[in-house]
Write a structure and sequence with these properties.
single chain, mainly alpha, Hypothetical protein af1432, 15 helices, 70% helix
Length: 280
């Protein structure tokens, strides 16, 4: 199996349009792109699909209940999650549903939910004004892996077998060596193609190898910490199940230390059990 950057770019063209989704998802995504979108109309649209409504309610309860109490209606869920996070959930559901036959997708979704939760916890604790963006970036940060899972399933089957081996390399490094780009680059391209703003796509691009100068430094480093925390909590990637050194650099850039990380992990652990229960 070989692939180069030209091959990857050609394959990505198939993903420039959002894959076929249910009429309800298409309608809600279209409405969310309107300047006149409202919580009430969005909730009514979601309620047309009982399975989608249940997913939004579960996500709202798992991602927000420690801050707001139980969520009992789709309207309340949409208000609490915000338009960006609802759109992120819809995009994730379309891509993951399309790829659910591939190995690694259930683990990818669990990991992404935990990263989203962690990012919200960190943003709130640090008093940052963009909790919704942090939460949404967490949901979407590994969306590039869906592309690789679909296009190169044999490669990932082999990678999964080495994921918890001490000889394993970080997944993004292996991807760069094999394909010339990694899932963070592909995820950035997909998010831009789907109309997501750079405040979400840029942190995804620089998740594993951030340069010194970033357009959204705080959000990028919050996402890095949230991602590495998920691995430390046992919700890592099936391709690489170890915490990376980039965690310490991100903590330092945020002005955080070991005690802060322990506090974040304690809250995240207490919340993750509820997330697992609600995802059953």
């Amino acid at each position: 199996m070989t692939a180069d950057l030209a091959d990857i770019s050609g394959r990505l063209k198939k993903y420039e349009r959002l894959p076929v989704a249910s009429p309800v998802v298409r309608d809600v995504l279209r409405d969310l792109g309107s300047e006149t979108a409202s919580f009430e109309e969005t909730a009514r649209g979601i309620e047309r699909d009982p399975d989608l409504a249940l997913q939004i309610l579960r996500s709202a309860n798992s991602l927000t209940s420690s801050f707001t109490g139980r969520v009992h209606s789709v309207l309340q869920a949409v208000r609490l999650l915000g338009f960006k996070t609802v759109k992120g959930l819809l995009l994730s559901s379309v891509l993951l549903d399309r790829s659910k036959v591939h190995a690694g997708i259930p683990e990818l979704w669990s990991h992404s939910q935990i990263v989203s939760l962690n990012a919200k916890i960190i943003a709130r604790r640090l008093g940052f004004p963009w909790e919704e963006e942090a939460q949404t970036a967490g949901l979407l940060h590994d969306i590039g892996k869906v592309f690789f899972y679909e296009e190169f399933p044999q490669y990932y089957q082999e990678a999964f077998q080495l994921g918890d081996s001490i000889q394993a390399e970080p997944d993004w490094k292996r991807e760069r060596a094999m394909f010339g780009v990694d899932h963070a680059f592909v995820g950035n391209r997909l998010l831009q193609a789907f109309g997501m703003s750079r405040v979400l796509s840029d942190p995804v691009l620089f998740l594993h190898d951030p340069p010194a100068n970033l357009l959204f430094p705080e959000l990028t480093h919050v996402l890095i910490v949230a991602d590495q925390m998920a691995t430390a909590m046992g919700f890592g990637s099936p391709e690489f199940d170890f915490v990376e050194e980039v965690l310490m650099g991100a903590l330092d850039r945020l002005g955080l230390g070991d005690s802060d990380l322990r506090e974040f992990l304690a809250e995240a652990h207490s919340r993750s059990l509820m997330l697992e229960i609600l995802s059953l």
